Amino acid sequence: MAVAKAHHAKKVAIYGSGPAALMAASRLLLAAKGEPIDLRVFEKRGGFGRKLLIAGSSGLNISHAASLESFVGHYRGFTPEIWGRFFKVCSPQDWIQFVENLGLETFVGTSGRYFVREMKASGLLRAWIDALKSQGVVFESQHEWKSPEQFREFDAVGLFLGGGSWEESLPAWPQAFKRDLGVDVREFYPQNVGYEVAWSEGMIGEAEGKPLKNIMLKTKRGEKAGELVVTRYGLEGTPIYFLGEPGPAEINLKPSMSRDRIRERLQSSTENLSPIRRVKKYLQLPEASMALLFHHLSDAEKLNMEVLIHRIVAFPIELLKPRPLLEAISSGGGVALDEVSAEPGSELMLKKHPSVFCGGEMLDWSAPTGGFLIQGCVTQGAVAGQSIWNYITSKRKT
Q: Which of 21, 204, 222, 261 would give a disulfide with 16, using CB separation of 3.0 to 4.6 Å?
């Protein structure tokens, strides 16, 4: 009678402790279905999940209620077809269910974004790490990936080393990738970041820190409704994170009303008021919007009703350049996507190093905030975790 051979536990290392890394570990354990795995999560810092804690310090937005078709359209980098396959592994609803299974309550805000009820990342991070530890995962801090020599003791390695955002200095791993692995790494650049605008001193003095509420921003990348905040250097806020691009842009200060409706409202009174005073009284624009009109229109424009109406529905601004990478919520650039496999079953494996898998911000893709960014990270983590399992089981058979 044939005797089944005992399988030694495969050794897997996960470097990084952000959402992509933790989801890779979770998915690997799920795929293993109880088979023993020696799984270790290494973090270069003294604590785990730093960027998740930063992102969730004032309201942890974890996904979006948009349709999957709409969801895919928010990503740059991988093709929509590839993203579609990724989401079959870990869809937005899969991720929401995962969070709720950790014991956290979620809800959908008025903007369509999903949040955790406690509005902070600390509870999610703690519950997630505790769940992994309870399944035997070992966490080690102050342990940084530096060279391929660290691959030797593991059957497979998942690298989730992060990008260039929220870093005092650029990470060292891109140079090691180029030098030691022969992998193409693109220069990091800021994403989900404010843009510089040449405000007048009067505008800054009156509107700095105040919101342009209920506006519609339009750039060559499209249009997005929401709220922008005036800063000394320019603009911050979701619409600029979605659509920011150097060059001309327009802000509709009253998108809820048509030109004709605005005209009707401004002409409805017989009071002897100038057009700009009528705007202030009858359109009830926010303080920052009125400051924009007062300080960035000429006296002649403020006295011309038709010109003023045109500026209200299409106020022209020039987006000069994005703020530095240090201020960015996320970064573009990183490992070139043609360096990783997109083949079903081995997605996110480095083609030149088949036992090594990558994901998260260290890859050259991007997405806006509002739930799309973190969803993209955890989905890639799930895909990488499944691919790691596929790899180690295929090696075992050989």
A: 21
Strand partners, 228: 212
Contact between residue 239 and residue 217 where contact means Cβ atoms under 8 Å apart: yes
Residue-wise pLDDT for 91-141, tens only, equals 999 999 999 999 999 999 988 999 999 888 999 999 999 999 999 999 999
Asked if residues 207 and 288 have their Cβ atoms less than 8 Å apart, the reply is yes
CB 360 within 8 A of CB 19: yes
Instruction: Measure the CA–CA gap between 287 and 289, rounded to whole angstroms.
Output: 5
- Report pLDDT digits (tens) over 307-358: 999 999 999 999 999 999 999 999 999 999 999 999 999 999 999 999 999 9
Q: Which residues contact 99 (CB under 8 A, 6 or more apart)?
A: 62, 106, 116, 124
Measured distance CA(365)–CA(107) in Å, rounded: 27
**Phi, psi (degrees; rounded to nearest 5) at 137:** -75, 135
Give the torsion sign (CA, 230, 232, 234, 237).
negative
Dihedral Cα 9, 176, 146, 53, nearest 10 deg = -90
Look at the chain and count its residues: 398
